[in-house]
# Entry
Amino acid sequence: MNGSMAQCDLLIKLLLFAVVSSILGFSTIALADEETETRQQLQQISTEVKKLRILLGQFKTRRSELQNTLQKSEVDIGAIQRRVRSIQQQLHKEQAELSSLQKQRKQLKADKQKQQKYIKQQIIAAYQVGQQKKIKVLLNQEQPEKISRVLAYYDYFNQARSDQLNAYADIISTLDTIEPKILTKTHNLSRAKEVLSDEYEKLLSRKDQREKSLVKINSAILNNDQRLKKMNKDRAELEQLLAAVEQTIANINIPTDYKPFGSLKGQLPWPVSGKPSNRFGNRRNNTAMRWQGLAISASEGSRVEAIHYGRIVFADWLRGSGLLVIIDHGDGYMSLYAHNQSLLKEPGDWVHPGDIISTVGNSGGQQSANLYFEIRHNGKPTDPSRWCKRA
# Structure
C-alpha cells in the first residue's frame, strides 16, 4: 500500500514539474495561439493532482483502519486467552474432584462387597444355630452358671449382626449420594470442554484475522525510511506515556522486607526464560534508531514475571508495543514488558517478585513471539543485562 503511496507522491511531483514546465514554455510562444490550450492543460493537471491527493488520503485512512483492526484483534486474543486459562483451571479442578469421587465410589463398592459377605456368613450362622439352642440353654438346670454367659454371647452376636447391617445401609446411602455427584461432574466436564473448544475456535479466528491485518499492514511498509518514521512515532508515544506516568503517580514506598530497586544491580531475576535477540544500544533494523531494551525470544504463552516489588501503572494496548505492562518500582525506577499475548494484572495492582503479570505473545505487529523488556531510571533506558542475573 505504501508503495502505491510513494508512486502517487512521485506522480504529484512529476505533474507539478509539468505545471512549471508549461508555465515556462508559455513565455516562449505566442500567447494568442497557445493560451486556450495551456489553460486546458493546467486544468487537467490540477484535476489529476486533486485525484491523487484524494487517493493518498484514502490510503492513509485505510492504513489507520487496518491498525485499528489489528489492535482489536490483539486485545480480543488477550481476552480469549484469559478465558481459556480460566476454563482450563476449572477443567483441572473438576477432573480432580471427579477422580476423587470415582476413587471413593470404587472403595465403597469394595466395602459393600465385604459387608455383603459378612452379612451372608452371619445369616448362615444364625440359621445353623437357630433359636432352639438358646431355649435349651434357658431350660438346662444342670449348669445354671453358664446361662448368663451364653445369653451374653447371643446378645453380642445379634449386636454385631445389627452393626453390619447398619454399616451396609450407610454404604448404600453414601453410594446413592455420590452417583449423582459423579454424573454432575461428568456433565460439567463435558460442558467445560465444549466451551473450551468454542473459545479455541474464536482464538484461531482472531489470530487468523490478526495475521491478515498484519500482512496488509506490513505490505504497506516497504522501506527503511517509513519504518524509521513509524518507530520514531511509536517511541514518541511511549515516551509521552512514561512522562505522563511519572507526573501522575505518587512515589511508592518499598516494604521493609524488600531492598530498594537501585541496590539490586546484577541481582534481579529475568522476567521470562529465553535468549535476547539483540544487544542494548545497537542499531535497530539498520536505521539510526537504537535499541533501548532487550527483545527476549520465548514460546508463545510463556509466563512473564515481575522482576521486583512495585505497582502496575499501565496495562493496555499501545501502538508499536502491543499489549504493554509498566511497573513502578519507586525511586524513579520502572520496568516495561511489551508485545504480550494477554495481560493478567490491572493498573493499580501491587506485585511481588515472581508474580505472573502477563504471557508472551507477538502483539504490536511482531512476526514472532518475544518479550520486549526495558528498565528505566528517571525516564532514561538502562541496559537490562546489567541489572538481571547472568544466565
In short: The chain has six helices and ten strands. Residues 226-387 form a domain with the Glucose Permease (Domain IIA) fold (CATH 2.70.70.10).
